[in-house]
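Title: Prediction job returns without error message
Component: structure pipeline
Severity: low
Priority: P3
Assignee: unassigned

Description:
Job completed but the reporter wants confirmation the result is attached to the right record. Sequence as submitted:
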Amino acid sequence: MAEIEAAVRDYILTAFLTGARGAALRNDDDLLMVLDSLQMLRMLIDMEAQFSIRVDNSEMLPENLGTIEKLAAFIARKRQAAG
């Protein structure tokens, strides 16, 4: 799971955050406060492609996407369910 967390974190830092905001990002920070809705959507689309998963609209919840840690755990569960 640490590998997925690192990939998600790297993506966020590369795509959306620079400088001090990026340096201050922690894996338990609330992503819904860090990224706007379009950035979240773009990230999900890219995560679907990168990890070969499909995120249903009903799964777009803070429990699944609220932090890097939660998103990494969600991706791991989706990958495990896919086999």
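Comment from assignee: result matches the submitted record. The longest helix spans residues 37-51.
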